[in-house]
Design a protein that fits this description.
The protein is of the alpha/beta class. The protein is built from 9 helices and 12 strands. The protein is elongated.
């Protein structure tokens, strides 16, 4: 009896995901069904394809040869089915996405609303976390990350630039013409991931001017002054979350250096005042990360939508 195509496709997905659970999530099947399909495939082929234990799945030599002989055919079949679906119906199904909580709440949520209004048959499963999620193991289709670091065979596409800006509590703010950027080191800060109650921050004036549309030379260099300063700042509060940092700054606990989205949010709510707006600190760019395997049409639509939405939104 010829091996079942469903069993072969399940085997390929398990090898790619290196996990029964991850493959089950990707295929939308119970883990028990995935396990039964593997057993049946091995029975159909009269060969052991996988070594399984509590921690990992490993291909046998026979399994590796079989995988290499069928994987391109499975991909070709997936592509053919995708093209047929495109020609016959609207994209449908769930997309699983992960992103940092602040980006999810402040930036992505309204984008997702617009996307869902365009595609009534697509649903979104959003996982908001600051940890770096293993996309393959956890069955994630798309990740938005404030870093280009990727693992394995994932690819990253830049969504936008990011910068850290200085802000203080609106309630406690008093303007002082004599204050300079260097005198900030004398003021208490709400620190972010500091050690021993202090940290060094690097501020750049040229980067802020460039981000606001300052003139550039033909070679791309900034016209006019460009300056960098390093300050050692200290404070009584140290946090590892920018949302908490913004709240503490708004409550008057010190100066904060935080992502632009938190500053804009606080300023619009009347809780924060941005200070020294010509100065900012560089932050990791925001990237869209996803597996290199051919994306289902619903996922491709979302990635292209987010690339266009961030191009319009600008830096965060």
């Amino acid at each position: 009896m010829a091996p079942s195509a469903d069993n072969i496709a399940t085997f390929v997905e398990v090898v790619r995901r290196q996990s029964l659970s991850a493959a089950a999530r990707s295929l939308g099947l119970p883990k028990s069904t995935v396990s039964r399909r593997l057993v049946r495939l091995e029975e159909e082929l009269h060969s052991q394809l996988l070594q399984r234990d509590a921690r990992k799945i490993t291909l046998t030599s026979v399994g590796r040869r079989f995988y290499e002989s069928v994987v391109s055919a499975v991909d070709a079949l997936d592509a053919a089915v995708t093209q047929l679906e495109l020609s016959s119906s609207e994209p449908r199904g769930a997309i699983r996405i992960t992103a940092p909580p602040d980006l999810g709440r402040m930036v992505l949520a309204p984008m997702f609303v617009a996307f869902l209004e365009r595609h009534a048959d697509i649903s979104l499963d959003l996982v908001l976390t600051n940890r770096t999620v293993d996309l393959v193991q956890e069955g994630i289709d798309v990740a938005v990350r404030a870093s280009r670091v990727v693992e394995g065979s994932l690819i990253a596409r830049k969504l936008c630039e990011s910068a850290l800006q200085l802000a203080v509590s609106a309630q406690h703010y008093t303007h002082d013409d004599s204050e300079t950027i260097r005198s900030l080191s004398e003021r208490p800060f709400v620190l972010h991931r500091a050690s021993a109650g202090s940290q060094v921050i690097k501020l750049e004036r040229g980067a802020a001017l460039l981000a606001r549309g300052a003139a550039v030379r033909p070679d791309g260099a900034l016209r006019g002054p460009r300056k960098t300063v390093e300050l050692t700042v200290s404070g009584r509060v140290n946090v590892d979350d920018y949302a908490a940092l913004a709240e503490l700054v708004a409550a008057g606990q010190g100066v904060g250096l935080m992502p632009a989205i938190h500053v804009r949010d606080g300023v619009s709510a009347g809780r924060l005042v941005r200070i020294f707006p010509a100065w900012s600190s560089r932050a990791p760019h925001v990237f869209l990360v996803y597996p290199t395997r051919q994306q289902p049409e619903r996922v491709r639509l979302l990635t292209e939508f987010l690339l266009a939405a961030f191009a319009e939104h600008g830096s965060v």
